[in-house]
Amino acid sequence: MPHDTDTPPAHDYAAFLRQQLALQHANVARYMLDGEQVWLKKAGPRHGMGRYRVLGALARLARLQVLRPVPNLGGTAAIATEARRLYDLAARGLRVPVLLARQEDGLLLRHLGRPGEPAPSLDGELHAAMPQGPQAVLALWRQGLEALQQVHSTGTSLSQAFARNLVRCPDGVVGFIDFEDDPTRALPLAHCQARDALCFVHSTALYLRESGALETARLLWAAWLAQQPADMQSTLAHSIARLAWLGHLPQSRRLGRDLQRARAAYDLLTPVIPA
Q1: Residues 31-53 pLDDT 10s
Q2: Is beta strand 36-42 parallel, antiparallel or unpaired with respect to 106-110?
Q3: Distance between CA 200 and CA 163 in Å, rounded?
Q4: Three-state SS across 189-258?
Q5: Which residues in 1-20 are b (16+ Cβ under 10 Å) and which e?
Q6: H helices within the chain, ranges in order?
Q7: How confident is the model over 176-198, as pLDDT tens digits?
Q8: Contact (CB, 8 A) for 49 and 41
Q9: Domain segments of the chain: what residues?
Q10: For helices 189-211 and 122-129, what crossing angle results, to 10°?
Q11: pLDDT above 60: residue 6
Q12: Pick from 221, 171, 164: which is nearest to 197 by CA?
């Protein structure tokens, strides 16, 4: 479902961006313009690769190209990448922030939620749903998986399909944020889409396990996977086979949250064997 692109005529967004960029110190800041909430993203310094440590470590251990971190150099390159991806995804009918104005070193984006209210990430909602039991967690997880399918059905992929980058808009539609890198320019599409699935599962499987929803989710995952193109299924099957060593890890909090997530993800991804 495309986002509402009606732009209030009262503001010169380009002028606001130009003026505020010179004053803003933070890389990202929120502003209210006569009741409309916007976000200004400013080109930051060149990025290191530390933020990709988990995917990078798994890619090295398993020798998996699909998990190889896609460089995000930050600065004006990241601004250009995000603008290009926002235009492309919006043109495909996907819910992303409306790009109100851009220049080489900054973007002005419309908030995906209601003015003055946070737009909750799927990660935050899954965490909040834990006390409500497995069905509440499973419903949110399934919505995220369906949103991923919607993206892939348009012939593209996300950048980092972690649950923190999936946002539930006020009308219930799942939107997408954070496009400073572009895997489609570094990997084949089947790899990019498999990468989306692995990122989504890695960031959500532990919620499923801890809420008691993992076994039901495995059935939903198997049904979802059966509907994917053959090349993506093959890429995922190869990736899961290369990650088999994760199945030998204990289900222990002593592993730390990152490895707990990886172990839960592997258990979710392994084929369901009929009784």
Answers
A1: 999 889 999 999 976 554 444 55
A2: antiparallel
A3: 6
A4: HHHHHHHHHHHHHHHHHHHHHHHCCHHHHHHHHHHHHHCCCHHHHHHHHHHHHHCHHHHHCCCCHHHCHH
A5: eebeeeeeeebebeebbeeb
A6: 13-21, 53-62, 75-91, 122-129, 134-153, 189-211, 214-226, 230-242, 257-269
A7: 999 988 999 888 999 999 999 99
A8: no
A9: 13-110, 122-269
A10: 20
A11: no
A12: 221
Q: The tokens of 186 are what?
A: 């570094």
* Amino acid, res. 210: E
> In terms of residues, how long is the chain?
275
187: its two tokens: 């990997």
| Cα distances (angstroms) measured from residue 7 to each of 10, 12, 15, 203 | 9, 11, 15, 34
Residue closest to 143 by CA, chosen among 85, 202, 200: 200
Supply 6's token pair: 């009606």
Collapse the DSSP code of 21 into the 3-class scheme (helix H, G, I; strand E, B; otherwise coil) and give the result: helix
Q: Which two tokens stand for residue 52?
A: 């990709």
Query: Is residue 73 packed enough to be buried (19+ CB in 10 Å), middle (13-18) or exposed (0-12)?
Result: middle
CB 206 within 8 A of CB 257: yes
Instruction: Name which of 194, 156, 191 is nearest 176 in CA terms.
Output: 156
SS3 170: coil
Single pTM value for the model: 0.86
